[in-house]
Design goal:
This protein is of the alpha/beta class and 427 residues long. 61% of the residues lie in helices and 8% in strands.
Length: 427
């Protein structure tokens, strides 16, 4: 009975995530017939990331609330079901995202090999269950269910999908389970993030077109409200300076881990908000200063602030779009220079300098040199080919080699054929 309860709960929790595979299967068929070579990787990255996030969140929920749920649902005498639930659904954190890969293969007409893997997984499950039930009872059956999932899904299905669909394994891992690390961009983003608050405070002065407010206010007068779009390197550095100025600070991001990090870093001095259209609009319209720090590596920044939002903002409010290097995250943004850094759209001041760190060249030069020197030494010591083969960060920075585009995002945006950097370098 405890195993049956845990199994039923696991099946119930799996259902919404399984729907992702049902959606991906026909979509994969469309991509296969359309001959879009780079699209399957994008589909896999997005669907696996969503499934992994949902499965991970549900597992955490099972860990903290599963015991209470079982006790209130079927009674305390079946409390053993909680351990079984954690084992069974823990395996699903792997099985559900990778199961989407099987659905995509099915949609693209590749049925035989994934089906044989699934059959092998079932046979191994049966054999292990017959053995482990003699040792640990229902817990042994749960463990016997989990072991084949880890072995087959991770070490058979995943390599097969990467090889069959010619996926970039490193890019896939980076997009689904790892944060994007851009070590040479980081120091410039730090400078731009800190400078954005300084530039915004300047633009808020009445003489420069702003509404004439002081970021920190004074006794008896409310402080300004700063809304930061994106909690990455730019956003976190902007938030630190903004909090230090005494302003009210709101950070909006779609990554809960980023928001948790921001909360740990700055505590109650910053308000963290999950990013969706309603939340962005709600806070932007109430902001005195909006700082755009959204980054999608290699691709254009998403337009989070629409022209309609800008028209509805407070007169004299300010937008500092740090993302202007990648097109800006505001629809009304256009690149400016340090000589003429601002312009007006309606009654809103726009500061969209494309090279913000250039305004403080001494700080920026030292910061960039500190980050760049180790990589430059590697290239000097090993030669560029070997250095790029040995260092993934250098390799990720390669855009074009021997006339071939080696950055996936650039290839997709410009309509070129993508080539794996390692194969181009080795060839």
């Amino acid at each position: 009975m405890p195993y049956y309860i845990a199994r039923r709960l696991t099946d119930f929790l799996r259902k919404p995530i399984l729907q992702i595979g049902d959606v991906c299967m026909p979509k994969a068929g469309e991509l296969a017939t359309g001959g879009r070579s780079s699209a399957p990787q994008r589909l896999i990255e997005r669907s696996v990331l969503v499934a992994l996030a949902l499965a991970g969140g549900l597992f955490i929920g099972c860990w903290y609330f599963g015991d209470d749920l079982i006790r209130n649902w079927v009674g305390a005498k079946y409390a053993e079901s909680h351990l079984l639930l954690l084992i069974l659904f823990g395996a699903q954190v792997v099985a559900l995202p990778l199961g989407i890969l099987r659905s995509i293969l099915f949609g693209m007409g590749n049925v035989r090999a994934p089906s044989l893997m699934f059959l092998g997984e079932a046979i191994l499950n049966l054999v292990l269950s017959l053995i482990l039930i003699q040792v640990w009872g229902p817990t042994g059956v749960a463990i016997a269910t989990a072991i084949p999932i880890f072995l087959v899904e991770l070490f058979v299905l995943l390599p097969y999908v990467v090889r069959t669909l010619k996926l970039d394994a490193w890019h896939l891992a980076k997009a689904t389970v790892g944060p994007v690390v851009l070590p040479l961009l980081a120091p410039m983003s730090e400078v731009a993030g800190r400078l954005s608050v300084q530039a915004g405070a300047y633009c808020l002065e009445k003489a420069h077109g702003g509404m004439g407010v002081l970021l920190g206010g004074v006794a008896g007068v409310p402080s300004a409200r700063i809304v930061i779009l994106g909690g990455g390197v730019v956003g976190s550095n902007a938030a630190q300076i903004a909090v230090g100025s005494g302003a009210q600070v709101v950070v909006i991001d779609r990554n809960l881990d980023v928001l948790r990090r921001m909360d740990r870093l700055l505590g109650a001095r910053v308000i963290t908000v999950f990013s969706n259209r309603d939340n962005v609009e709600h806070h932007v319209l109430r902001a005195d200063l909006v700082i755009g720090g959204v980054l999608i590596p290699g691709a254009a920044a998403p337009k989070l602030v629409t022209r309609q939002m800008v028209d509805a903002m407070k007169p004299g409010s300010v937008i500092v779009d740090v993302a202007i290097d990648q097109g800006g995250c505001c629809e009304t943004a256009k690149a400016t220079t340090h000589a003429e850094p601002t312009y007006m759209v309606g009654k809103v001041v726009h500061y969209c300098v494309a090279n913000m760190p250039g305004g403080v060249p001494r700080t920026s030069t030292y910061a960039l040199n500190n980050a760049t020197l180790p990589f430059a030494l590697q290239i000097a010591d090993k030669g560029w080919r070997q250095a790029l083969q040995d260092n993934v960060h250098l390799r990720n920075g390669l855009n074009v080699a021997f006339g071939k585009v080696t950055c996936r995002e650039v290839a997709e945006d410009l309509g070129y054929l993508y080539h794996d950097a390692l194969s181009v370098i080795a060839g």
